[in-house]
Every structure is written in structure tokens, then in C-alpha cells.
Predict the 3D structure of the following.
Amino acid sequence: MQRKEPEAASGWAPWKTGVVYQVYPRSFADTSGDGLGDLEGITRHLDHLAGSPDSLGVDAIWLSPINPSPGLDLGYDISDYASVDPQFGTEGDFDRLVAEAHRRGIKVILDLVVNHTSDAHAWFVASRSSRTGPYADRYLWSDPAGTDRAGGPVPPNNWVSFFGGSAWEWEPVRGQFYEHTFLAQQPDLNWRDPGTRADVKAMMRHWLARGVDGFRMDVFNAFLKDPQRRSNPIRRGRSAWTRQLHVHDKDQPDLPALLAELRAVVDEAPGRMTVGELFDGHASRAARLSAERHLVFDFELLQAGWSAAAIGRALDRREAAYGPDRWPTVVLSNHDQPRHVSRWGAGRDLDEIARASALLLLTMRGTPFLYYGEELGVPGVVIPNDVAIDPPARHSGPGFRWWNRDQARAPMPWTGEPGAGFTTGHPWLPLPPDWRTRNVAAQRADPSSVLAFYRALLALRRARPALHSGGLARVSTSTPGVLAFRRWTINDRALVVLNLGRRDLAAILRLEGPAGWRPALGTHGSNPPGIARNGRISLRALEGVVLVGTDVPPVR
Ligand code: NOJ
């Protein structure tokens, strides 16, 4: 008999055992013909995600921001937290999306962007106009440090914006600077103002009452800044941002207490969650800030190169940071980074790199976050900076380098019809280069497609406790280019072996314990390689396999 997994009882499932799928609403599906995705488009495609025999089989969706926004950071500059941006649809469309998702067993996570608002938000409009009144301290206002030779105001310290330039913007009406970690049109909230806390908590309760199951908390470790506004120490680095040690403009000592307050709001009903986006930090900090039902992204894997050594090191760092009692996330792509098949796939077959990286993503210890389109192996689109929509890319130049994030945000290809089934109009960004053949309809009909592999792997993951909730230990091999690890629970075992290299090879794994392994799923077709008693396994280039213990119950 399988032992009951404790997370099911604690409301920790499915956030621990399940899989989350990130939808970038602008790019998922357009039903109005304006070239921009909308909520109704997401609802119409929920069957792709879960609830029908053809579905991918995910447990939750995370929607990038859907609130009204001037769009200067494509929704990450919110001007009204309480409603839905009309360009994505109506309030009714949102409620229907939640109901239809829940009907299919899909939980819904919203993006909580509360490090900053848009400068068009009513709070900021009031705050910038006067040093008195209820919103006077809602943002981070500071007097100038003095005047420069031309008589202009000097910012209070050396903090810089992640999007380039000083983090301080002069507001002549108040005669003060305000702070912004991102664009000047994204002023940072003052989290030491009780009004900020009260209003954000009320807003969270509003969305939770509408059925939302949790929040992805944008740059959550930057919410608090040094109250004394001390300058950051300087270090060597390649950009204005990396030339500072960011000890005073994020990761403040009172952050855990603030997170506990916000998490308590989410925990007012069981089974809900948050996932914090760790801004500019490593696995150790992510692990320290994580808690049951409250995950934290770390981007160690996302920043690793495609080699067994680099990914193995990232894996070791994560395992050391999280230890047996904390639970990591696994992320290979999102709306801010080059898609992983393009990042890792240079000179390689896209389908092969997509399958090999999916094997890692869905068998490592942690809650996987998929990024829309990766289940098809969709690559990045090349969009030069001079036609970029992404704001920091538009002012990228010799003094400020920026990777244009439009390249990871192309519309989802659903069919080979004009508009790729994404839109009947003109898509807001170019379609991915190979959309005519790489699309959902084509891959659904092809049992050897990347999509078919994702579905099979997700099904295997769901069926095997070792894969969705087990421990992880690396298995050593002296064969370069090969990564291997074991996963286990009390009564389930799995072994994952992957050749990341460009050549076929035979590896010898140093396996401890009884050698009973049956290949369950491989990247290269229906006959995945087995492992000999002496630990020998033959793998083609970019071939990976999941083996399961033969002394444990078979997959149903
Ligand atoms: C992180 C988000 O993922 C990114 O897209 C955004 O530009 C910044 N936070 C600012 O909100």
C-alpha cells in the first residue's frame, strides 16, 4: 500500500506535488481580433492545459498582470489593483475564467505587483501633489542631498534603477525625489506606511474572494528599503547595477515579518499559496525566505549553461540551500529571460533540446513552472532593439545593456492557419519563426512531438511519488557530459540519466543498493535504454531516460 503523502492533508498539495503553467495574457489567445491576447482566449484554451484526455496535465496557471496599466512595463505598472484591464476583457470574463479553470481542477494564481505602482495610480497622483494628506507617505520620498553646480537637486544617495539611470526622480511639486527600482513611471511603494499594508491586504482579499488561489509576488525581496537611505557599497561590476552591493535597497531585516503578514492573508483559507520572485539573489536566500505553501523562485538553473557540470553544480547548490525540509521551484523560462530552447539550443536540434530540458524540469526536486509555448519547443523570436516594445530595451545602448524581453513573449501558435490560431488580426509581436509547423494542432496529432513528450512526462510525474515529492541525490559517474540523480520516497524510487553532450556514449553509473531499474520514459522514442547490473547505460546525444524501481508498484 502506498503511504498517504502528508502534503495532501496539509493543503500543501498541489503546490508541492503539482505543476504550474505561466500564461502571458497578451500572447496566449486573442478572441477580439485586436492582435492582443485576452481572458476569453485563455478560457477557450483551458482544455489544452487540463481537464480533458488530450490535455497537458497541469495543476495551476499563473497569469502575468491583468490589471489596468499604462503598459509602460507591459502590465507590471499597475494603475488600478481592483479591476481587470478592459483590453483583456470584462470583470465577467475574469470570473468565468476562474470558474472554468476550477471546473477543470486548475488553480489560478495572479501576479501581485506591489513593490511599485504605475505613476498613473490614484495613490501616486495624490502623493506627488502634496506632502500632507492620506497618501503623503505612500511612496519613498526624500529631500535632496544638496544642489549641484548648476543649482539642480542632488539625489539622496547612490541607488540606481535596474532599468538604467538613478533610482531617484525629482518631483517639483513636492520639491522632493521619489525612488523607483524600475522605470521612473513605476514609483516604489513605502511598505513602512500602515496605509500601504492595509490597502494591499484589502486588495488581496478582494481577489481571493473572487476565487483566486494565490499570488506570484513580483520582486518581493525589494519591498522594503533602508529607512536611513544609506548609499550602497561599491564593487566591481559590468553595469551600474552590478557595480553596487544591494544591501540597502532590498533584502532588509524586517522583510520576513512583512512576508509573514502578507502570507497570513493568503492562509486565511486553506489550500492557497504564494510564490515570491526573488529579485537578484541566489538559492540560499530563496530557501531562507520559503515556507510551506509559500514558494520562492530562484534562478540558479535558469542561469546555468547547458553542460552536465554546470547544471550539476546548480543542482548541488540548490539541494544544499533547501536541505530536506524546504521545497524549491524549478524554472527554465519565463517572460523576462531568453526561452531555454534558444538559450541552450544553439547549433542543436530544437526538439531534442526541448525534450532533454523538459526531462530535467519535470524530474528535479521542486515545483515546476512551465512557460507557455515551451511544451511545443517554441524558440525565441529575434526582435532588434530599435523596434523593441520592452521599455528598457528601447533605451539600451553603450552605457546600459539590456536583453530585449519581447523575444520571449511571442504569441502562442495554436494552428497552422493564418494568425496561427492566435488572432484573426495583426499580432502585437511577430509569431514564432516556425509557427506553421510548430503549433498545438500539429503536435497534438504527432505522437513523437515535443507536446506528446511533455504530456507523457507530466503523467509519469503525477503517477510517481518519487518524482513529484521525493528527495534527490546525485548519482556519480566519471563519464563527462552525463548527469544522473535518484529520486525517492518511502515506497517509490526513480532514476534520471541524461546525456547533455553532442556524442553518443556509454556511461557507468555508481549505483548503490539493489539494481532493479525499469526504463519508464525516454526522450528518444518508445524504447528507452535500460541500465545493466554493473551500472552501464548507453545514451545517444541529448538522450535522457527516467527509470523506476522494479521493487515498487507499477505505474497505473
Ligand atoms: C519582475 C517582472 O517579472 C518584470 O517583467 C518586471 O519588469 C519587473 N519585475 C518590474 O515589475
In short: The two ends are 14 Å apart (CA to CA). The pocket of 1-deoxynojirimycin is lined by residues 73, 76, 113, 182, 218-219, 277, 335-336 (CB under 6 Å). Residues 128 and 174 are 6 Å apart (CA to CA).
